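hi! just following up on the protien thing from before. the input was this:
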Amino acid sequence: MYNFVIGLVYFTIVGLFVECWVSLSKWNGRLHSYLFFSCVTNLVYSVGFLLQLRSGDQVSYVVAMKLGYLGRVWIGLALFLLVMELCQIHIPIVLKSVLVATHGFIYYLIINIEDNRLYYKYMEFVMDGDFPRLLHSGGIFYYVQTGLMLAYALIGISAVVITFIREKYLVAKKRYLMMSFAMFSIAISYIMYIFKLIPLAYTFDLTIFGFAIGTFFMLIAIFRYRMLDAETLARNYVVDELSEGIIVVDPEGKIAYCNKPAQRLFPELSQGSLAGKEAYNIIERIRFALYCDEPIRMNDRIFTPRVNSLMQNGTNVGTIFVLVDDSEHYRYMDELREQKEIADEANKAKSQFLANMSHEIRTPINAILGMDEMILRDCNEKEIKEYADDIQTSGRTLLTLINDILDFTKVEEGKMEIVPVQYEPGPLTNDIVNMISGRISQKGLVLNVSFDKNIPRLLKGDEIRIKQCVMNLLTNAVKYTEKGSITLTVGFSEADGGRIMLKFSVADTGIGIKPEDMDELFSPFMRAEENKNRSIEGTGLGLSITKRLLELMGSDIHIKSEYGIGSEFSFAVEQEVLNAEPVGDYSRKGEGGRKRTYKELFHAPDARILVVDDIKMNLTVITKLLMRTEIKIDTALSGPEAIKMSEDNEYDIIFIDHLMPDMDGIETLKRMKEKEKGKSPVYVALTANAISGAREMYLDAGFTDYISKPVEGERLEKLIKGYLPAEKLLDTPDSV
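and the predicted 3d structure came back as:
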């Protein structure tokens, strides 16, 4: 029997050494720490017990006993902490501290066992055959130690059994089964030894059998069922280290598992039962948030709930709820919203500024160009007409700069629209040539025009935007060309479905573009070689606007340039063919872009209009521009004055300026419509506000049409002619 016991102790020591080595080699967190602690304490106890079996006197026996108790005192606590960690049961740090202090004090008493009666009241060394042993009677802390060991064993067994029942995975269930066998064998051996349930318990410490059997089952759990493998680590550590809270619910709706982040979010899960009413309320709260598609807000954090089914071999074994901490995302989105609001406010301020500047600048330009137009119409002195023509050119240049800024704003706000209409490419080209010829002649350059006579006569597209793009390219070419020529080429190629690609090319003999400047060419407010071209007028927006307009029409701009020799800009836009007959040659009108001889479009002596504007000069300009049409014109300098005049007189058309003091144009329109009697006149917004969305704003306010300042005489006459009753119009025989 003695040799059997010695062999059993050697087996236990070897097994425990293997467990220590495995736990050290795979060390990764608290689980391995507790396992190593348990193995070392058990190993120390087993070595001490082996030395006790080989003792021949009381002195050597007591020394061996003290060594063994260095492990024995801590075995129960180590196994208890290991089992609690495996079963995901939280032990408060305060309780751990109290238990550690208690066991430390007990070992202190054992070390000084000869000097106190707190652990053993009485002890006597005897040799019972081959087995040396110490007869003793227990003191108070002997029973404290015994009670703690039994409590550890019973609580550990209960925890393992409950976890075993709840576990759904077969390998994990077997792992917990081995752990329960290990704890059970240790508990049984301890109970048999304490209460002397068998005769052998009187001979030596039976707990060595329990520790040996427990070691055997622990080895099976480690090597056969991978207690310390990657899967276990993922479940016991990685899952707990995630920021997401994870809750697993079984098919019956009870919580089967929750990780530590979930327990921190819902302390009820760590303090109470996972199957209680509080746990049920937690799941219902998560389900409700999922149903409403809303986040869950807790402790100043925001969590997004997600749900998935747990499937095993095609069978639903539960549901997993994940609470993702999206606090930073929501905080970032809130910051974005704040930034967007700030940007929107800044954009509003910019738009308001541009509207105000547009109005303030266009108002004097309206007077300048309008009065200059009267000089060109009525003056016959060549030198004065040349001066007036120069004023007209400079005024138009200033107006172009303002229009560039406003067009850029429209594109930036996404309010620039492409409006396809039917048009003739011949007259379009003719208009372009007439518009640019004056500037080219003034610089002493030569304009070459190459026009394909086979271009279809009638097309459908946005004639205004195409003309704007070509004019921007031509204007840019004139700016950067000091000598030589500018060549405009207009051609086409066939496309599918009764369409063509209408092609435009503008080549110059100007300064050209350096390769390194190409990337900045289409940047807003940027100009090539700014330091060398300070004298060149412009905002630097022309090419940027052209590129964006072409993108809206499904096209792009292409560039060929050689620095010091010249550049060529070209683009092609797809257009619908309405009449495939060749256009033939295009005809030029006028000379060098100079103003054509004015001839009114109509006479309307029986018609009557009202013009409302708070600036007297603007009223004078419109009156002069329409003088030869013989139309009756009344004027008013304020909204209230205009309202009274509309009550006392019948007008065919009423022009109302928008930005007037005291009562603006929209309020004036509203009051006029309230006081209308009988037939309603045509209301036209007359304003310097040309910013994006202005036309829509005026139409929504109730105006029939919209005309911006500075007012062009021909455009004004066309608008009036379009709205006057036919019976009041007397067309001139040679109107243009």
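The CA atoms of residues 468 and 546 lie 8 Å apart.
The chain has four domains: 2-234, 243-325, 417-582, 602-731.
cheers
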